[in-house]
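User: My advisor asked me to double-check a structure prediction for Ankyrin repeat-containing domain protein before group meeting. I don't want to rely on an old file, so could you generate it fresh from this sequence?
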Amino acid sequence: MENIGYLHLTPLQTAAACGNLKFVRLLLAAGANVDDGNPFRTPLSEASLHGHAHIARELLSHGATIYRPGRVPNSLKVACCRRKLEVIDMLLEHLSGGDHLLRAMDEALGVALQHDDEEVFFRLLPRLPITPRHLGWACAFGSKVGVERFLDAGVSVSDRDAAFGYPLHTASTRLRPVIAQLLVNRGAKVDRASKRYGNPLLAALTSCAAPLLRRLRSKRAAKLISRLPTSHDDSAFVSYAAGDVELSAARVSTCLKVVSILLTSGSCVKKIDKDFGTPLQIASFIGSVPLVESILERGADVNDIGGYFETALFAALEGRRNAVVRLLLERGANAEYSHPEFGTPFCLACANNDLESVQVLLPHGVDPNATDPRGETPLTIALKLESRGLQSLLAGSGKQLRVRDEDMIVAARFYRRPDILGSVLKLDEKMIPSEETILTVIREPAIPPKMISSLVARNRQLGVTEKMLKFAARTAVVQALLQIRPICKLTLEILEFQRERPAIHLLLEHEPDFPITEAVVLAVLRTPCHPPPMPTMGGLLQMLWSRNPGLQVTRAMIEAASKSPKDLEFILHQNDTVLVSQEAACIAANHPFSAPKLTRMLLSHAKMLKPRQEAVLLALARCPSERMMSTLEVLLEYNSELEIPGATTLAVLGTVRSRIWNEWQKRLDVVLRNWARQRLKSEGGLIMSSST
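Assistant: Sure, here is a fresh prediction for Ankyrin repeat-containing domain protein from the sequence you gave:
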């Protein structure tokens, strides 16, 4: 009976969960185990979960166990989690003493604290033993009655618990101003330091800022975040608006009350820091002007260094607290201090694209050309962020900006705004770009040629170099570079690097004495034929032969020209006496851009040679399948004695589709006769009619 389950519950657990008292009694009378279940579920835990007090009473009357670690789940914890007050009262009446009692109570208190449920705490309070640990629980809940009960019973405000630490630290971390005032009145020391939290003032500020601190994304911050004090339901104190995260006014106000109590009682604010810095730094990160002012009035040094932020000004900038930034600068904050991760305060404001803070910092003597640890200036940062507002602020600051090669490279990559490069050049008239910078700009496809010309013209000593002409990817850029002086001599390597034939035409026109050789022709033929906006392709090739009429057509030219039928036709007509090798003819004719008529054209120039079998097989191997039949047909016309292997013949036949069979019958006849002739030779004249 006990082994029969329904939805993973035994019958008694199911009856308890449903609140069916009749079936519970029936099952118990039949001998069901009152603690039937496992370490996670029992009949009593199911009754507690669903708030069936009458079922819990019946089970307890039959000796049900409330909690046994490792064997029976904590039903009191379950009831507290679901806030079943009647069941809680009943379980407390039946809870016996001993270690199990303390452990059951602590687990129940932990669940209640997660929900900040003071009413549940009040029900548990009368059963709590008088110990420093349970004083810590009362401080965490913010129960004045509970704290007074423990203090009146003899627990000292100076007693330290291993889990909670000192009572005042607990009250400060949980932001309980009433409890903090009570403990101070009872003699708690406001400057007693804790290894984990520092003094109570630092504990209160860190706890208040914890939701924001947890959003820091640097690797260094990640290690520190894991050590932050846990506080109750951070999300309840955070408002999300337009994607920004801000501490709620209620949370900051509560923190201010705790801080005021501690400061009034003499808490020290000088050079006391933990992971995230001094009290002033954390208050600056929170962003409350009254909070910062109250700490400054107690003698805090605005330029104290320590913790993650290092100074209060960096903390305010990282939190984007413009009002606090202004206040700190008025109180003498150092605007030139360099942080190992952020650089100067001005660099950090620019990196955050915080225009208001940038405006606040500019009148305080900041260096607009200072570099951060990555070597980036505010201008570089503004360009990388594509922030027009930040660029305008820097340009209108009245300070001399130094434009570096890195800035030119970043500006050149603004594909959507190529005019950015021009505006950056205007910021520093003395800037002379290096050759590497110019080469980087030249490679960018969106930069106007006129802009490239103005950039190159700045370095008058350098002029136009061989590298610049080699890496000019567009004809318009080449045309612009050719107008600048000084300019290098034209080389074959420059021609070979060009991507557009009109650019080669311009280069050769620029230097009319440049010798025309086979290598120059090959450079032209190997350059892709795009629809020419400038001189035609035929005109370029014609210009080469007009400069060197004695230029001989070579096999390499024919193979290079096979990419374009027009180029090939032009090359073949330059020399009537040329003998094209059969290998060149076959291979070039089977280029994907060629057509069968080009094969005839090539073979007509190789009329003194007949295509050999090796050349034909190589041609067919490189030929696209849809042109195998037409290619083989042309080759057989020029050499009907070719021996084509049977496997190759079958491969050619396999490319012929049934729907065009009639169209290919005459062509097939030529191929099949060739195949039959080979069979006749191989079998000594004996061919079966069926084979034919």
